[in-house]
Amino acid sequence: MSAFEASAPAAPPVPASFPPKELRQACDEIVARYPTRMAACLPVLHLAQKHFGGWISPEVEAGVAAYLEVSDSHIRGLLTFYAMFNTRPSGRHEVWVCRTLTCWLRGAAGLRRTALAKAGVDRCGVESPDGRFLVKDMECLGLCEVAPAVFIDGAPHTEVTTESLEQLMDACE
Ligand code: FES
After folding, report:
1. Full set of structural domains in the chain with CATH
2. pTM to 2 decimals?
3. Per residue in 7-48, pLDDT tens?
4. In angstroms, what is the span from residue 120 Cα to ligand 1's centroid?
């Protein structure tokens, strides 16, 4: 293999056919609510992530860009800016631990350690080996007055302790 071949960038992904027929109507309805197709990016990405098992593959990413007639880099920017999007397999349950000041002062570091230990991983953003969990660090979840806060699969939990977090995660199949 030549030095050029070794350093050549990967070919861009072939766009997935997007939206699939099950999502066509919902996507078209979302787009119709906005003044431009670009303005519909976030709700369409949320819908796509939910439909495709909790994450957006490069092919789906390219498919969404083509459907919304925006650049691939615009979609990439959204997926990497907003922490609620996943660009890798995400596990069956997402555990978001708030790491912002109020929660941190009230024990979020311990919750983070507990969540990672329960998932069997050593860092956030990595699917657990059994495919059950994805633990994510999140910025303020808007529940500072009842900190520390954790979301599991989109449901808020407040004044969480390491014990209650263990129970919540144990209840996840
Ligand atoms: S600082 Fe954690 S919810 Fe606001």
Report:
1. 3-81 (no CATH), 93-170 (3.40.30.10)
2. 0.80
3. 666 666 666 789 999 999 999 999 999 999 999 999 999 999
4. 25
Q: Quote the CA–CA distance of 96 and 90 in Å, as a whole number.
A: 12
Specify the DSSP element, H or E, that contains 79.
helix 72-81
CA of 152 to the centre of ligand 1 (A): 15
Residue with tokens 């650049």: 71
Pocket of ligand 1 contains residue 102 by CB under 6 Å: yes
**Residue corresponding to tokens 């979609």:** 75
Q: Which of 75, 97, 99, 79 is nearest to 88 (CA)?
A: 79
Instruction: Kindly tell me the sign of the dihedral angle through the C-alpha atoms of 124, 89, 77, 24.
Output: negative
Amino acid in position 41: C
